[in-house]
Amino acid sequence: MPCGLHLFWDEAVTAYDFGPGHPMDPTRLALTMRLVEALGLTAGPGVTLRSAPAAGDSTLRLVHTRAYVEAVRHAAAHPEESDPAHGLGTDDNWSFPAVHSSAALIAGQSVAAAEAVWRGETQHAVNFAGGLHHAMPGKASGFCVYNDPAIAIARLLELGAERVAYVDVDVHHGDGVQEAFWNDPRVLTVSLHEHPATLFPQTGWPTETGGPDAPGSAANLPLPAGTGDAGWLRAFHALVPELIGAFRPQVLVTQHGADTHLEDPLAHLAVTVDAQRLIAEELHGLAHEHAGGRWVATGGGGYAVVDVVPRTWTHLVATAAGRPVDPATETPEAWRAEVHRRTRRPAPLRMTDGARPVWHDFEAGYDPADRLDQAILAARRAVFPHHGLLA
């Protein structure tokens, strides 16, 4: 059955462009939107295509410091300068003239998505240009300038939400969102990510479970490098549904970085588009089961610009619209032509990697010698007791 969906998009988000050679290529955003359109998802029942203005300074300062916002504006005016104290003009976060305006626009889209869901204008809202989860209150980090998911959550709290759950399935730890709400019991942050011993930002250990006034408000499950579909799905189901059920959020906010994929050049997991689609479906179901259907979904990382990101996030949009795309569906010819025009590369032919992921329930038994099961058990033991759950 179709769900109400506000899909947030503005072509100007593609100005969030660090420049040639940087992994965060905005082509991935444009190709995603073109695939969404080519499959007819924007014309479906209950789907509204929306845009929103850039977040103003007062909104940005729900998470970021005044000095940092001013530093980003300065970086836009003087992109040739380096400001390592604020993480700008660094190896990861190059400065460019649209650094403030484009990052604020992405944040504005996520804030408007949260407002629309909270006010009952729609059940679900998606901003796949968002998910910039590494930005800290006073510093850019990991290709992220303004932390749009954290700002959206802060806006929900400002509007009166008392319990917001954030689930992050990017290959990198959702450190910036965790930092923003580390000591706030109103927000539960859950992150599944590659182990910090092998990947940036080297945080997200199971023992990171929240500040002194919010024990259990953070949950982290670091996955061994090489984890594939079966392990990723097993870990998700061993941790996330029980926590969301115990926390009873009024809104579910999610981050769907596509960089868990086996072809991603910056990380070391081995997940397929097919498993990523299943996780989107699971989070959709959890929103309906525990949050009254209120679901705000963002994109995130993902650096296989042609082969992975557009298909993964198109599946996300389709899932949120209640009109899932059959994985066997062929990608439209017009979209393939657009891929070639933009990149001179061949496009994937189908909406699937050809995988049929299966996983085994952790509750049915675990192997104490298995590194994945050790990680799952460590995460559950660290956070479950805070929620009255058995590890």
Automatic annotation (TrEMBL):
Lineage top rank: taxon: Bacteria
GO biological process: acetoin catabolic process; epigenetic regulation of gene expression
Pathway where it operates: Ketone degradation; acetoin degradation
SUPFAM superfamilies the record matches: Arginase/deacetylase
Domain (Histone deacetylase) ranges: 22-319
InterPro entries: AcuC, HDACs, His_deacetylse_dom, His_deacetylse_dom_sf, Ureohydrolase_dom_sf
CDD domains per record: HDAC_AcuC_like
Keywords linked to the UniProt accession: Acetoin catabolism
MF GO annotations: histone deacetylase activity
Family label: Belongs to the histone deacetylase family.
Name of this chain's protein: Acetoin utilization protein AcuC
Species for this entry: Streptomyces rubellomurinus (strain ATCC 31215)
Lineage: Bacteria, Bacillati, Actinomycetota, Actinomycetes, Kitasatosporales
